[in-house]
Design a protein that fits this description.
binds zinc ion, metal ion binding, 17 strands, five-stranded mixed beta sheet, Amidohydrolase/deacetylase family metallohydrolase, TIM Barrel
């Protein structure tokens, strides 16, 4: 099976695309255009549209029968131009086998996961780290990671409502487990306690802070719009910031202030689930559209869901056009249209350019078309 994508405007964060501007695919992988037969290949003319490596959304909740908030993986995946999604802690070790069976194995979208440091995951309500007895031990974690190749790290939610009187203790425990296994931790930040000056020093290079640009008090910026020292130090150590839009965790104002003073790259993700897909989140492309509204370039927005996400997740195949890697492709349009988009704080801003999905190719196969 050979496929040739022609006449697209390539957005190629790694700058590895072929000079011809054409993308060739054979047997599910990217190959050089010269390697496929122009006579027998299926040619797709995508003139006017943009063509990028398959988008990665590193914070979603898709455990439909496991967590109350879960949404269908393909609805927020390939049907929205996203080829790889990462469920961020919906499941702990208790629900992992069923997550494989009912979610990973049954969708066109590639589903990876951060494993909740609580055995229960989000399944039993939203204070999963309040009882130390629920925390997964090193041996259990090792067993889980050995059994499930799609795990990319651990998830620990550091909000008062999640940890109750445990403060940072669940994160200290997650740190110990993550170090023993050599995997990163994605932490969620929200309403304290625990406070960021106690949380951030526990993070190491490669760990991810999702909801980094929330608009609540006690965030990464102080009242003057400067990063608090612990946030600056964390970035210097190689800790990564991620958007994780969600119902309550993305503020235009916070990201705009950050952008005004700092160049540090971040990843874009949605924290999408059943209750926020209509508003305020919409989709990964809607979240990227909000970046355009804040004057980020299209290249930046695409890099934040491809090359950067790949690096953050330690992936090798996804998010690139590199020859020999799995042929995941996102075809999209940037439409000139006025649209009012709301952030998690209820602030509405009007954008004049909207990113919209057009076609999704997963492992060389067209799995969705607008
Ligand atoms: Zn989440």
């Amino acid at each position: 099976m050979e496929l040739l994508i022609r006449n697209g405007r390539l957005v190629d964060p790694d700058d590895v695309a072929r000079e011809s501007g054409e993308i060739a695919i054979r047997d599910g992988r990217f190959v050089a255009v010269s390697e496929i037969s122009q006579e027998t290949a299926t040619v797709m003319d995508v003139a006017g549209s943009y063509v990028a490596p398959g988008f990665i959304d590193m914070h979603v909740h898709v455990y439909e029968d496991g967590a109350v908030i879960g949404i269908d993986a393909d609805r927020v995946g390939v049907q929205q131009g996203v080829t790889t999604i990462v469920d961020a802690g919906s499941t702990g070790s208790d629900g992992l086998a069923r997550f494989r069976e009912t979610i990973i194995d049954t969708h066109d979208t590639e589903v990876l996961a951060f494993l909740n440091i609580s055995r229960k995951g989000l399944c039993d309500g939203l204070s999963e780290l309040a009882d130390p007895a629920d925390l997964m031990g090193v041996d259990e974690a090792r067993t889980a990671f050995a059994a499930e190749p799609n795990l990319v790290g651990l998830k620990a939610r550091m909000s008062g409502s999640v940890v109750r009187e445990q403060d940072v203790k669940p994160l200290v425990h997650a740190r110990m487990v993550a170090d023993a296994l050599g995997v990163p931790i994605m932490i969620h930040i929200g309403n304290p306690p625990p406070y960021l000056p106690d949380i951030l020093p526990l993070l190491k290079k490669g760990d991810i802070v999702t909801h980094a640009f929330h608009g609540k008090e006690h965030g990464i910026l102080d009242t003057n719009g400067e990063m608090i020292p612990e946030a600056r130090d964390a970035l210097t150590r190689g800790v990564l910031f991620d958007i994780g839009h969600g119902s309550a965790s993305f503020s235009y104002e916070t990201l705009q202030k950050f952008k005004g003073k700092y160049d540090e790259a971040f990843t874009t993700s949605t924290d999408i689930y059943e209750r926020n897909i209509e508003t305020p989140v919409g989709s990964l492309m809607t979240t990227m559209t909000k970046l355009l509204q804040l004057d980020y370039s299209l290249d930046e927005a695409v890099a934040s869901v491809t090359s950067r996400a790949r690096a953050a997740l330690g992936l090798h195949e996804q998010g690139t056009f590199a020859l020999g890697t799995v042929a995941d492709v996102t075809v999209f349009d940037v439409v000139d249209r006025k649209m009012a988009l709301v952030d998690s704080n209820g602030e509405v801003r009007e954008t004049v350019k909207v990113i919209e999905p057009k076609m999704t190719i997963k492992s060389g196969r067209v799995v969705w078309k607008a």
